[in-house]
Structure to design on (336 residues):
């Protein structure tokens, strides 16, 4: 972000955690808890948070709170696993606009990315699910178990490819017999066809792990399709691992991202970014302007349309994403 003149005075730092936002009350609550747990790691700096869309407080409100506490230099990080359009375009656009309007310095950190601590957190969630299944139903060798890692899915192929790397490292590191990758939306394969494919591979046990930070509509979708496939294949044990949430290693990685803004390497890996390089199939997106497309749903909160399955005529027990098959509305807002 652009540096602001601070009159020769030492800057007062503050930390801003920039979340995506969700229509799910539980997801919004979990993000707030994460921000609260991060605060003790920076006892000399105020820590605030805000959301890009749907939920409140919005990012601007969090920045306002930092300024009210005398902050002149904001260290902002995206509360996101990987760098796709929201981390690369939408959030920086909001931060740049705010810094320009209010004359403060905002430096922007990188996403959580593929990180050893994040892999350890993922491994813990998967191991806990396996241990519970072993206790309930008897042990199954990992060599006879297939791991399925489900990512969010994005319009950025570089971000999507990171899920494959996460899955591969968990596969080899934990000794599974096989691993597959699926996505909750936007790209392919989607959850249900991915799981149906895996049931034909001959494994006794399948463990489904959502590589997500928080709960929400998409977690409900992943678990809902998992239950449906499990019901259709009673001869296979299909278990659901927990998502990352506020695992201590996740909190530690967020803290690292804040510190490295001032003290370390703060570079996103842009080698395969579709906005900077001619990625196969995305050549026409090189050099697109950095701007936000989410003003129309900013701060709408859990009252936004589509927040509840009860209000949907297309879904019964969980959000299946069927509404996005509507060809008349090509921009997907059912993020969480």
């Amino acid at each position: 972000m652009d540096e602001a003149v601070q009159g020769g005075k030492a800057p007062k730092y503050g930390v801003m955690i920039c979340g995506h936002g969700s229509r799910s009350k539980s997801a919004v609550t979990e993000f707030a808890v994460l921000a609260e747990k991060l605060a003790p790691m920076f006892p000399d700096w105020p820590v605030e948070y805000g959301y890009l869309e749907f939920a409140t407080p919005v990012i601007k409100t969090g920045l306002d709170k930092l300024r009210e506490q005398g902050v002149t230099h904001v260290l902002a990080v995206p509360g996101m696993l990987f760098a796709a359009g929201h981390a690369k375009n939408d959030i920086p656009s909001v931060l740049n606009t705010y810094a320009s309007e209010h004359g403060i310095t905002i430096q922007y950190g990188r996403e959580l990315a593929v990180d050893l601590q994040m892999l350890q957190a993922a491994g813990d969630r998967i191991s806990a699910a396996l241990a519970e299944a072993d206790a309930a139903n008897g042990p199954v060798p990992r060599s006879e178990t297939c791991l399925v890692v489900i990512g969010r899915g994005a319009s950025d192929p570089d971000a999507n490819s990171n899920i494959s790397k996460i899955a591969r490292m968990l596969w080899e590191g934990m000794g599974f017999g096989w691993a597959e990758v699926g996505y909750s939306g936007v790209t392919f394969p989607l959850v249900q066809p991915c799981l149906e494919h895996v049931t034909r591979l001959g494994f006794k046990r399948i463990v489904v792990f959502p590589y997500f930070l928080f709960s929400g509509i998409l977690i409900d979708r992943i678990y809902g399709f998992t239950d449906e496939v499990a019901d259709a294949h009673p001869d296979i044990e299909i278990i659901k691992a927990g998502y990352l949430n506020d695992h201590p290693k996740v909190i530690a990685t967020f803290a690292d991202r804040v510190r490295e803004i001032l003290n370390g390497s703060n570079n996103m890996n842009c080698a395969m970014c579709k906005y900077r390089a001619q990625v196969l199939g995305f050549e026409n997106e090189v050099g697109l302007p950095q701007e936000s497309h989410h003003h129309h749903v900013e701060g709408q909160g859990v009252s936004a349309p589509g927040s509840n399955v009860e209000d949907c005529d297309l879904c019964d027990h969980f959000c299946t994403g069927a509404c996005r098959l509507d060809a008349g509305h090509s921009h997907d807002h059912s993020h969480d």
In short: The helical segments are 25-38, 59-68, 85-102, 116-137, 157-174, 191-198, 217-232, 248-263. The two ends are 28 Å apart (CA to CA). The chain has eight helices and eight strands.
